[in-house]
Amino acid sequence: MRKQQNRLIGLTLLCTIGFITIMVGVVGHSPIINQIDQAIINGVQRLPFDNGFKVITDFGSPELNTLLAFGISIYVAFKDKLLAIYLFSLYFVGAGLAYVMKALVQRPRPTVASVHFDGYSFPSGHAITTILLVMLVCILAQHYLKVKTMQIFLIGFGSVWVFIIGASRIYLHAHFPTDVLASWCLAMAVWGGLNWLKQAYLSRT
Question: What is the pTM of this model?
């Protein structure tokens, strides 16, 4: 139990430092951040998925993800209230922090003449709500699916889905790559922190 808690603390600190480092770079207009963004953009723009990304990105919208997360939390509440509270907290704390950061950082969206997206860019709402929703599904799979191969399949599929949504936001010029990377760091930091709190609580009961 102690080793697991130490790993969670380490993961939380690492991801928090990663998020803060990117955020400081964004706010300070760091050349390194610009170089990272441009390098990843150049790679993603070579992908031949223009029409596909335009369709797929809507399935990772914060509105849809939030509706699904809320529905999952309500459904689980009838079976396991403690688990439902954990799932609800994981999603809405993570999403809430992302939108607070948007208001604080106020990073403009990528400027491309052919496209226009409302709101601020950092961090990505699509990216963070998608990874948080995938976390919820994977946690449920570990609790209720007895077949290990199905758990591994869902985790693998979820990871690919998170990457696709993130790539779609970059490809469509809705976000800079560092917006997406920071979103993933923030989500992992919230997951690690809440897991540590849960483990600490369970060790005392």
Answer: 0.90
